[in-house]
Amino acid sequence: MRSAHAVIPAAAALMVLVLLSALSQTEACNKALCASDVSKCLIQELCQCRPSDGNCSCCKECMLCLGSLWEECCDCVGMCNPKNYSDTPATSKSTVEELHRPIPSLFRALTEGDAPINMMVVSFPVAEELSHHESLVSFLGQREDQQQNISLPKNSIHARYDSTRGPDNLCTVVYFDDCVSIRQCKLYCESMGGSKYRWFHNACCECIGPECLDYGSKSVKCMNCMF
Ligand SMILES: *[C@@H]1O[C@H](CO)[C@@H](O)[C@H](O)[C@H]1NC(C)=O
Ligand SMILES: *[C@@H]1O[C@H](CO)[C@@H](O)[C@H](O)[C@H]1NC(C)=O
Ligand SMILES: *[C@@H]1O[C@H](CO)[C@@H](O)[C@H](O)[C@H]1NC(C)=O
C-alpha cells in the first residue's frame, strides 16, 4: 500500500492538491471528513465525470469508491448538490460509529486516575446521556472490508450492559484536546479500547466508553478544537 502511494507521479499528486484546494472553497464540502477518501477516489480517477452536465458515466464507480461516506462527501466531488449547512454550526453536527473490538478494561484503566496528557476525561450519568435530543448525527455503516454480521456484536454488547448496568451508572468519554481527522479519531479511540466514537464536524474527537448506552455526550469539549 505504502509503495503504491510513493509511485504516484508528482503530477497526479499535484492535480489532486489543486482539486482539493478548489473543493475546499466549496463551502458545503466537509473537508475534514472527506478529504482523504475523496483524494483516494480522485487519484484513481473514479469521479471525473460531471453529472450536472448529464454525464454520469462514472457515478456508480465513484459511489462505490466513497462507500459509506458517499452521502457526506458526494458534493466534494461534484456528484451531488452542495449541502446547505449554513444554518447549523459544525459543532452541532457529528458522525458516530461503533467500534468492533472494544476493550472495556483498557478503556477504564486509561480513564481512571490522572487524566492523560492531551485529553480530557468526562463522566456523567447515563440517564443524562439518553435525555438529549439527537440533532444532526450521521452513522457510519460498516466498511465493505468488514464482516456482514454487523448486528451481532452490537446486540450482544447492548444485552451485556443492559443486564448489568442501570441508568445510575456513569458514562465515561474522552475528548482529545486538538482537532483530528475522523480517521485519526477512530484510530485513537480503537487504541484506547473504546466502544464507539463521535467525531464532531469541527474535528473534535470523542471516544466513548463501555458504560455509555448511547453515543456519549453531544457537547464539543475539545480544549483546542471548540469552533
Ligand atoms: C463522460 O465523462 C467521462 C470521464 O470524464 C469521459 O471520458 C466521457 O467521454 C464523457 N462522456 C460524454 C458523453 O461526454
Ligand atoms: C442556506 O440556508 C440559509 C438559511 O436556511 C439560507 O438563508 C441560504 O440562502 C441558503 N443558502 C443556499 C446556498 O441555499
Ligand atoms: C454470521 O451470521 C451467520 C448467520 O446469520 C452465522 O452462521 C455466521 O457464523 C456469522 N458469522 C460471523 C463471523 O459471526
Automatic annotation (TrEMBL):
GO terms for biological process: regulation of BMP signaling pathway. This is Twisted gastrulation BMP signaling modulator 1a. Residues 90-226 form the Tsg C-terminal domain. It is found in: Secreted. Belongs to the twisted gastrulation protein family. The keyword Ligase does not apply. Keywords: Developmental protein, Glycoprotein, Secreted, Signal. InterPro entries: Tsg, Tsg_C, Tsg_N. Residues 28-86 form the Tsg N-terminal domain. One of its GO terms (cellular component) is extracellular space. PANTHER family: TWISTED GASTRULATION PROTEIN HOMOLOG 1-A-RELATED. It comes from the Eukaryota. Residues 1-28 form the signal peptide.
